């Protein structure tokens, strides 16, 4: 045995992988470092000028790595295994959505308490000096949970517009990676970029349960991978606010029971809001606001979009169990039917009536 801490350096020779490496100008060198507990770290180095590096050098380097592994683990260690090697591109920067494209809180219907809470958060963003004078800390994270189609993503966009902030949305493919350690690296990169934002920013993690699943206590590889991803997310959230107070993290989920409670505890996600399906009065408000928005956007001289008999209260009674997304789909179907009739008949179609809307609601209920 060599003394503890002894380092040995030697040139590799005598294998096909080494001959291939030498043919491409690589001159491999291996360093062995021994630890006090008898462990050993092996470092393989082979260099080629950056301007000359290509796929053949990569293949030769992979061959060298496998050669070293074979020497350490024995000839049979690599038998009946397959390997794929490639260059994984760095994750693309998360684009900011222009504020002018975001919905406003004034357009949100049926969620008066949530809207009021978001307006308070926006005030805390706009008055940092007052917050600092009182030592008050605005929320660092917001968790919204509820059934699909209730407007959680729309609310996050509306909050960004109310603050006057950029809006950046993180989706599952931007984080989850099939390669070991890739998901953790992606999370670190997203938060690294967030620390550099120089404008107030709402950073949305949509469908949070699919990005950060419940961190269970299982000892299998899948549970360990989930715990690693969750652990990195916790670490990043712990320091984000101190390093960049202009960023607020918003997470949305349809399944809050699938999210580990330690991830969303106070101090990380200080505000937790249930976003339920709207009740009848909420649906009436949503219908009214959606119709007003369409009129403001599309009506003009000589063109009327809705008849005077449209009654949001009656429609609200007919739409029991529907969400805001469902109501928008009802309007989309009626708009499309009118446009197609006018396009095929070559004559102006009449305004959207209460009967048109009733028929579209019934069609949606039928599926």
Topology (SSEs and partners):
Layout lengths: L6 E5 L4 H8 L5 E6 L5 E6 L9 H19 L38 H15 L1 H7 L6 E5 L6 H12 L2 E5 L11 H14 L5 E5 L2 H4 L9 H23 L3 E7 L17 E4 L5 H19 L13 H7 L5 H22 L8 H13 L1
Parallel strand pairs: 4-7, 4-8, 5-6, 6-7
Antiparallel strand pairs: 1-2, 2-3
Notes on the protein architecture:
The protein is of the alpha/beta class. 44% of the residues lie in helices and 12% in strands. It contains 12 helices and 8 strands. The protein has helices at residues 16-23, 55-73, 112-126, 128-134, 152-163, 182-195, 208-211, 221-243, 280-298, 312-318, 324-345, 354-366, and strands spanning 7-11, 29-34, 40-45, 141-145, 166-170, 201-205, 247-253, 271-274. The strands form 2 sheets. It has a 5-stranded parallel β-sheet with strand order 5-6-7-4-8. Strands 1-2-3 form a 3-stranded antiparallel β-sheet, covered by helices on one side. Helix 6 links the parallel strand 5 and strand 6 (201-205). Helix 3 runs parallel beside helix 5 (152-163) and helix 6 packs parallel to helix 8 (221-243). The longest helix is centred in the middle third of the chain and has 23 residues, at 221-243. Residues 1-14 and 214-223 have low confidence and may be disordered.
- Coarse shape: elongated
N-to-C order of helices and strands: EHEEHHHEHEHEHHEEHHHH
Largest sheet: 5 strands, parallel
User: Structural class given helices, strands, pairing?
Assistant: alpha/beta
Could you tell me the strand content as a percent range?
5-15%
Count of strand segments: 8
Q: Give the low-pLDDT segments.
A: 1-14, 214-223
Which key phrases capture this entry?
alpha/beta, 12 helices, 3-stranded antiparallel β-sheet, 44% helix, 367 residues, 5-stranded parallel β-sheet, disordered N terminus
